């Protein structure tokens, strides 16, 4: 049975999944990992979710305030052995729902060109590619997305 739990970044299962995510990202990003890692801290994140299958943590995601009524989706991850089951889409939908409840009207996010599965996920869930924002503005390997959720 799949359950989704709203929590905070201090949740031990969220923390464990983030470690797995960071290991995966470090392998894919190579020398550029330290640049991206500085933007993936959970210090300013208050809203995190963990997805469980039969009480086993299999995926996570979070969002944080970006500016105005815009939330930034962060820390999306599903265990490799649990991919292909629609879990990432469930995470995204729950994050959007929670962001709406918190009075956000749109979501933005960043991923990289080295993550074609993430790009496909966001497109499939109604996100549109947008100009790179903030710290990603001049980063050629970044792909930024946005979606109106209100």
TrEMBL record:
InterPro entries: Acyl_CoA_acyltransferase, Bact_Acetyltransf, GNAT_dom. The keyword Mitochondrion does not apply. The keyword tRNA processing does not apply. Transmembrane segments: none annotated. Residues 2-150 form the N-acetyltransferase domain. GO terms for molecular function: acyltransferase activity, transferring groups other than amino-acyl groups. Keywords: Acyltransferase, Transferase. This is Acetyltransferase (GNAT) family protein.
């Amino acid at each position: 049975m799949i359950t989704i739990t709203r929590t905070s970044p201090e949740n031990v299962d969220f923390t464990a999944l983030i470690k797995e995510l960071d290991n995966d990202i470090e392998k894919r990003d190579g020398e550029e990992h330290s640049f991206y890692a500085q933007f993936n801290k959970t210090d300013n994140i208050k809203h995190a979710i963990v997805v469980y299958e039969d009480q086993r943590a299999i995926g996570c995601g979070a969002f944080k305030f970006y500016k105005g009524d815009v939330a930034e989706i962060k820390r999306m991850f599903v265990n490799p052995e649990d991919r292909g089951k629609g879990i990432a889409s469930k995470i995204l939908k729950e994050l959007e729902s929670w962001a709406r409840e918190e009075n956000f009207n749109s979501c933005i996010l960043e991923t990289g060109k080295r993550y074609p599965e993430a790009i496909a996920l966001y497109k499939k869930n109604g996100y549109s590619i947008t100009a790179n924002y903030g710290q990603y503005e001049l980063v050629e390997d970044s792909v930024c997305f946005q979606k109106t959720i209100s």
